[in-house]
Amino acid sequence: MTHPASIPTHAPPLGSSPVLQQRWSEVTFLHWRVDPSVVAPHMPAGCRPDVIDGSAWVGIIAFQMSQSSFFGSPNVPWLGNFPEVNVRLYSIDEHGRRGVVFASLEASHLIPVLVARAVFGLKYQWASMRIGQRDGKVAYRTSRHGNPAASSHIIVRPGHDVAANAELASDPISTFLTARWAFHERHLGRTIYCRNHHEPWPLQRAELVYLNDSLMAAAGFEGLADRAPESVLYASAITTVFAAPQLR
Q1: What are the DSSP calls for 50-96, one per residue?
Q2: Does residue 221 fall inside a structural domain?
Q3: Which domain holds residue 165?
Q4: Per its UniProt record, what SUPFAM superfamilies does this chain match (predicted)?
Q5: Is 123 helix (H, G, I), strand (E, B) or coil?
Q6: pLDDT band, very low/low/confident/very high, at 71 (cuts 50, 70, 90)
Q7: How far is 176 from 83, CA to CA, in rounded Å?
Q8: How much is the CA Rg of the chain, to the nearest whole Å?
Q9: Which end of the chain is more exposed for a tag (fewer CB within 10 A), N or C?
Q10: CA torsion, ordered 247, 109, 234, 240, to nearest 10 deg
């Protein structure tokens, strides 16, 4: 079980040259507490659920991706600019390395979907998606091509209480859920570990205005969307860089 004091608040050095850079903006984090046994079957070999206060967590993360570039090249203007919604879990491997496990990922451009599947084994799905902002609220909609029942409609209202948002920097649950600088994935019969690096999230508390989601159920987590999430957070933007994947 993770002890709150052991959760790092800043990314360790990447350890190798970056191969990919991206900007993530209009980022919403919705999280539900679950028993660790619920997520354990979804862990790659050599990993187990990362747990805090006796709970594992299932998250829906929605954001806009942009300014993608490879090996320091110029940004890829169209191909690297699209919304994404993922269902994710939290892992720790036998070496004590924490990460994210993606139960599903939705993206609106087909070519990045195919590349991510082939290179990383990530469970990307091609979807029709859009993000919009109005009256202080941010809305996300996604519907998977070939399976429109796998969809999500999320509306949040980010909070602007400076003192309340500042408290998030020392909140162990918020740090546990967002300070994740790697992912674990099963690919070609092996578990890979892929590091990333970015500055701490500029987190804001947020209000969930509306949720109609079937992505979690499609990923194997029935019923979660029927209850309110225990954590609702928002961040305006960060830039992240990825290293090449490593074998676990």
Answers
A1: --BTTBEEEEEEEEEEEEEEETTPPP-TTTT-EEEEEEEEEEEETT-
A2: yes
A3: 18-247
A4: Acetoacetate decarboxylase-like
A5: coil
A6: low
A7: 24
A8: 17
A9: N
A10: 40
